[in-house]
Design brief:
The chain has 6 helices and no strands. With 102 residues, the protein is mostly helical. Bound molecules: protoporphyrin IX containing FE.
Length: 102
């Protein structure tokens, strides 16, 4: 179970994510690709250039923030992301790379 304090902290990030989400995720990918160029080959780099991938990540993080106390509401989105990750061969050991760039 997630504590009420954690729920409150996560929810309090929602307004900033709504306002600056895509700016944050665009910068995050920029830093990640600079530091770990080897992960670039898994990504469609045109989706980076046109902003669609940073927009999708920003939407996902915003949804987590607003629905952290209603996890069933995230099911469809999480399943879609999981399918996309399987299709693009994302490995468990790659998660710390993304986790390092919040
Ligand atoms: C908790 C961490 C992560 C979140 C929240 C996340 C979120 C997302 C989202 C929202 C999408 C778009 C799904 C769609 O098309 O609808 C996506 C796609 C993708 N993710 Fe992740 N992801 C995470 C971790 C990772 C990691 C560790 C990698 C590997 C380095 C990765 C690589 C990819 C790739 C290659 C795609 C497809 C993008 C493309 O087609 O260019 N993700 N992810």
């Amino acid at each position: 179970m997630i504590s009420q304090q954690t729920i409150d902290i996560v929810k309090s990030t929602a307004p900033s994510l709504k306002k600056h989400g895509q700016q944050i995720t665009s910068r995050m990918y920029e830093i990640m690709f600079h530091k770990y160029p080897e992960v670039k080959k898994q990504f469609d780099m045109s989706a980076q250039a046109n902003g669609s991938q940073p927009a999708k990540l920003a939407t996902a993080v915003y949804s987590y923030a607003t629905q952290i106390d209603n996890l069933p509401a995230l099911k469809v989105m999480v399943e879609r992301i999981a399918h996309r990750h399987v299709k693009t061969h994302v490995l468990p050991e790659e998660y710390p790379i993304v986790g390092e760039h919040p």
